[in-house]
Amino acid sequence: MSADTRASATLETDEVLALARRAGEVAAGVGRVILGKDDVIQACVVALLAGGHVVVEDYPGVGKTLLAKALARSLSCRFSRIQFTPDLLPSDVTGVSVFDQKTGSFAFRPGPVFANVILADEINRSSPKTQASLLESMEERQVTIDNVTHLIDPPFMVIATQNPIEYEGTYPLPEAQLDRFMMRLSLGYPSAAAEAEILEAQTTHDPLAALEPVLDAAEVLALQEAVSRVRVAETLREYVVDLLTATRQSKDVYLGASPRAGIALVRAAKAQALLRGREFVVPQDLKDLAVRVLGHRIILSPDARVHRLHEDEVVERLLDLVPAPRT
Ligand SMILES: Nc1ncnc2c1ncn2[C@@H]1O[C@H](COP(=O)(O)OP(=O)(O)OP(=O)(O)O)[C@@H](O)[C@H]1O
Ligand SMILES: [Mg+2]
Q1: What is the pLDDT of residues 194-217, one digit of tens each?
Q2: Does residue 82 sit in helix, strand or coil?
Q3: Correct CATH for 33-215 of 3.30.1140.32, 3.40.50.150, 3.50.50.60, 3.40.50.300
Q4: Beta-bridge partners for 143
Q5: Which residue's C-alpha comes closest to atom 4 of ligand 1?
Q6: Ligand 2 centroid, distance to 121 Cα (angstroms)
Q7: Does this model's pTM top 0.85?
Q8: Burial 209-218, CB ≥16 within 10 A → b, else e
Q9: In ligand 1, which atom is closest to the CA atom of 35?
């Protein structure tokens, strides 16, 4: 079968269920490490299947780093961790070209961004220049050094973490850069029951060490390819357009969601449909993901800021206002 016919081929129900089961194993494995946060874990797996990057923004000690490590461990892929510190240089992320005296020429030494899963930890601690080097590679899936372009092999997923309360000496990512991330996630504190379980689990054994890889790179790519074949009805695309328009017209919003945001929402919805064993998107997929996909891509109006509204609340309100199609 040629690539073209495969891309247009519809998914069979059996195939979807088998793929959903494999993807579900990843979520289940991560769920044994990160307790009580199944919805966030599902969203992370959705981003993986949709080929998107995520930024996890939350208070210290709620499991941001652990979430990224657990996801990486569930995949037998190349993993790298970049700790963003004030003195980190762009070349520490992307790599450098070094002169080889023997051959008399320059050779490229790839940086940690050349991996399948990258934990970009505490990304707001580095200078904007270093952040930009990562964000450019994320968007373009390649690095250009000395006019030579080096492709980053897929699958390629960046999980960045950022701490929202630590503003001194940090550089929070501006909205234009946040747009590179398919989703913004936050973990939040666990429920009392989950927290008690965490205290027991984390002090008796190492749940992360017990995690076994579930998927390899080829399987991740096969899942991503299947996601592209999930169907989206015309009415649902119109619904996404209505949502985007609503963000642009809302009095609470200074800058609304871009077409890129809409593409990300549809992609994510297709991935969620597959994860849930469907070969078609339903309105609920879009509703479930809208806050996480759109929230970080809008800029609030000065008035909304004064009233201490959060972007996510504004998107939630718009979801209530914009009528969704029934199927
Ligand atoms: N929901 C959770 N499930 C399991 N363990 C958790 C959960 N939340 C926090 N923990 C535990 O809390 C500890 C801190 O987690 P982690 O280092 O991932 O936090 P962090 O959000 O990255 O913090 P920081 O912003 O300081 O880097 C870990 O030992 C982790 O096991
Ligand atoms: Mg951390």
Answers
A1: 999 889 888 888 889 999 999 999
A2: strand
A3: 3.40.50.300
A4: 150
A5: 34
A6: 6
A7: yes
A8: eebeebbebe
A9: 3
